[in-house]
Known about the structure:
alpha/beta; binds ribulose-5-phosphate; 16 strands
Amino acid sequence: MVSAWLPSVYKGNAGLRIITPQFEPATGTEMTQDEMKQAVAHAAVEYIKPRLRDDSIVGVGTGSTANCFIDALAQIKDRFAAAVASSEATAERLRGHGIEVLDLNAVSEMEFYVDGADEFDPHMNLIKGGGGALTREKIVAAVAREFVCIVDQSKRVDLLGAFPLPVEVIPMARSHVGRKLAALGGQPVYREGVVTDNGNVILDLHDLEILDPKALEVQLNNIVGVVTNGLFACRGADVILMGTPEGVETLKA
Ligand code: 5RP
């Protein structure tokens, strides 16, 4: 459930600054995970709304939290021009709400990219790609001035890597890349039956403690046959809206 905005607050929290806005559930109740996703989706709309113009293009991510955002965004669809989608599924949902979806190549400026994540650390580094859309997500995020990440608190970790790191791979390179990933000390697992929107396959890298996310992101992208990997560290989130049972917290580095 989503209720009123609270005034600005500043609290120390493992290196992240918590600032306004916050949502709070009605007195005496705690939000469920679904309600937290709804709450952060609405918080994201409130966050971007003041800076939207008639000609603004909004970049939109993929996943269950991003779906909540799309539904909330539809309520203000007259406040911006169009969206760019990070997956076919997102494009379909946006169009279903009557929101125009543009090819990224037709867009030179984008103020916001709003998307979920599978994990985030205190330095705003992310693991993404649980839904298999990591490559398009990373491309759309690269164009946006601000990456607004929307998550519930279950995604927060001190060290990335408990969530298996997705790596999108050209199909003919699957075994080669798998051997290279295993040599890094992780356990690559082929995501059976999944073909990405780009026609590629995904290897999920299990059991890897990610001590230096930026270095690993670059290292993985240098393996021949890798299209991209789910570390968003070289370009992490700029702001994280995190749902907690008590409300939404806004985190900035
Ligand atoms: C899809 C993603 C999603 O953002 C990530 O998997 C989180 O999804 P959800 O909001 O359903 O938990 O990276 O590729």
